[in-house]
Amino acid sequence: MKEASQGLHTQLADLAYQAEHVIDLVLGDEKTVVQHSLWLFHLAKSIRRIKMQLADIDGNSACSDGVDNSPKGFIPNMSYIPSTSIDEVMVGLKDQKEEIICLLTRGSHQRDIISIVGMPGIGKTTFADNVVKSPSVMYHFPIRARCCVSQTYKKRDLLLDVLSHIITVESNTYAMSDSDLEQLLYRKLKGQRYLIIMDDMWSTKAWDDLKLSFPDDKNGSRILITSRLRDVVSRISHPYPLPALSKEESWEFLKLKLFGKEECPQELVEIGQQIAESCHGLPLAIGAIAGFLDRNCGKSKDLWKQTAESVSSTIINDPETKCKKILELSYDHLPDFLKACLLYIGAFPEDKDVPVWRLQWLWIAEGFVCEPESGDLEDVAEKYLMDLTGRSLVIVAKRGSNGKVKACRVHDLVHDLCLLKAEEERFLLPISANDKPYSSFEALDYGVLYEHFNTSNSISYEQYRLSFCVDREQFVLSRPCGPFVRSLIFSAATDMSPSCSYDVSFISSNFERLRVLDLEHINMGSSFINGIELLIDLKYLAICGDIESIPPSLSKLQNLEILLVKGLKKKVALPDTIWRMEKLRHVHVSNHAIFTLPNAEKGKSSFQLNRLVTLSLPYFSLGEKTNETIIKFLNLRRLKCVFSEPRDFSENFCWASELKSLSQLQALKISYYGKGLNSDEWNLPSGLKELTLSKFRLSRDHLSEIGRLQNLEVLKLISCAFEEPSWEMSEGEFPSLKFLELKNLNIIHWDASSDHLPQLQQLVLRNCQQLDEVPLDLVSIPTLTRIEIQSCGDSVEASVREIEEQGIEGINIVIHNSHFG
């Protein structure tokens, strides 16, 4: 029955895509209406027939299943926040954790290897992350880095992954040969006590490829390996098997995922224990079934019973197959819009962190996100992600200072499920370097010769969405095409910087109906894509190149909502015609964007980007023109920008006076290039929730003005010069501040207490060498959970140690060892 339903769903998807294609053609040319009307009539009849067959099958399935999906178009409760996520909680394994920490921080002075082995879904990566984040390990190893090896890998990628945790990897680093990268990594680790995590190793070759880059200075450096293959790691070191959770631990984990600190209703305990036992101690399976119960069954005893019977009947003896069945059960009962959101993650390379802002903007451009009655699409997209993390189908990889998810990823088994379902449902076609015809191409990184490829015929695709993960040369020279393709996402098979430029103009003629085009990993050189203005359906455009300016023809893309430009030179000038692109919601240009104001005589009101909610990184030269530009972004929610002083700048000029007009602005990040502002009035928007100031000169009045921002939750002061040596906070300031970071400051004394920071949760101090101590009264703040210091003076470390010795429950103290080496 399921196979029949799946086959019909696939047919229906194909017909729907074809119908959409014809409708697009009709909308684009009225002359084709008569020509295609008969075809559409027959198509509609086919769709009705298949839907009737599906109704019969799905109706019978629903009767036997007993668990309903959420309604299509359903928007999750906007106040819902998942209590936990699989990356944030670890039940049991306390003894194992202490043993591994001991092996890492004690014992032999020689470089040593510790290997953790276990079946898929047992939580090896979560366990390793939990170990590495323990304060004793963080203090013991000044340098900590990681790479994810996976089943297929490239040595170069691993080297760059490890280096990215140690240095800022720039274009000149990417241009290095593999041998140069090995030597660079060796030099950066030489004389340092380091910890390298090599996650998900499948063969000893990965270790052989990297081991010469890891010096042994007899200082206690360590390599931590995770693998599902015991026979592989046993050739490298003694393997430490990670056990499955016991029955009691499994039930404890399930309860924690479902109820947090609350008690499980008594009538559900026995059934819940049965469900937990059926997962055979696999945290991934327990997390997935917890998400299923929470969203689909609530606290209904009957639905829990049906789930227990379903899980028991589908689970077999093989633990990995067992876990896959539970994941599939969870997927099958997702509402359609969440299925699409989850499957889309299959477009990204396996084992890579996915930036949340990029993923959510793609969801919006694809039309997966339902328009809310109130609020923004971005808020709804965030709730979708929270729903998927709450179901343990998506893992939180990083959180931002505001506590929101910054990057996410999926487990290998979930990624496999995404690819399987995406192909079954004709949702997405993933194309890798191992697929034909690319597997027959010679892999050359630079200077590739055209005669290596037969380019007489383009490779044609009929699918709706394409995700390429191949070498750049292979992609460009194969000149793919597809009349039905609506989305094209390219991820380079290697992480090399796209310094070698390519002509990608064939895309404009080969993919005429594109709505999503992501070419961030291909350098298109100094020339913009020829014919890009022909792609009138584009909603999402991400490009990369040596370009210094964007042509005025960009404004012909009147449906464009998201524009991402990765400029490989310092600044990219945007055309004045951009002000005509009324649907733009997100514009991100790196390194910097230069705006040109339209001619005043053309009318002021018609040149405002009223829908723009995110803008980064504009480069503003202080003056009246800057204020005239800022006022045109009245609905901005997030702004990241640079201000610079012109040669004729007056220190008495009220900088960016129009910032206060941005009443919707919630996050503001400003870097200042100049001698230092001395303006008495800053005009910061009163609704700010996040503020980052870099390279400013700060007076007592400036700090007080910031403190009066009633909604401010995150404050970062970076490389700022305090005009006075002491910062004495006043009562009533910073009433909502939750996160405070002070970095590279000249402050000497800081007077603060719970009266000044009543809601503070995290305090981070970096490179404040002159600061005498951390105020001890901060420990009386009931919400404080973390204090982190790095590269501060001995007196600061001593004061934090004093706080640590008080043993206050709930406060995590992290001190980075900056004195080693």
UniProtKB/TrEMBL annotation:
InterPro entries per record: Apaf_helical (IPR042197), Disease_R_plants (IPR044974), LRR_dom_sf (IPR032675), LRR_R13L4/SHOC2-like (IPR055414), NB-ARC (IPR002182), P-loop_NTPase (IPR027417), WH-like_DNA-bd_sf (IPR036388), WHD_DRP (IPR058922)
GO MF: ADP binding; ATP binding
Annotated NB-ARC domain residues: 94-262
Keywords: ATP-binding, Cytoplasm, Hypersensitive response, Leucine-rich repeat, Nucleotide-binding, Plant defense, Repeat
Protein's UniProt keywords contain Phosphoprotein: no
Domain Disease resistance protein winged helix residues, every copy: 348-418
Signal sequence bounds: none
Purpose of the protein: Confers resistance to late blight (Phytophthora infestans) races carrying the avirulence gene Avr1. Resistance proteins guard the plant against pathogens that contain an appropriate avirulence protein via an indirect interaction with this avirulence protein. That triggers a defense system including the hypersensitive response, which restricts the pathogen growth.
SUPFAM superfamilies, per database record: L domain-like, P-loop containing nucleoside triphosphate hydrolases
Protein localization: Cytoplasm
Protein name: OLC1v1000161C1
A GO BP entry: plant-type hypersensitive response
Family, per entry: Belongs to the disease resistance NB-LRR family.
Keyword Repeat: yes
GO CC terms: cytoplasm
Domain named Disease resistance R13L4/SHOC-2-like LRR: residues: 502-697
Domain of life: Eukaryota
First-listed, main subcellular location of the protein, grouped into a coarse class: cytoplasm
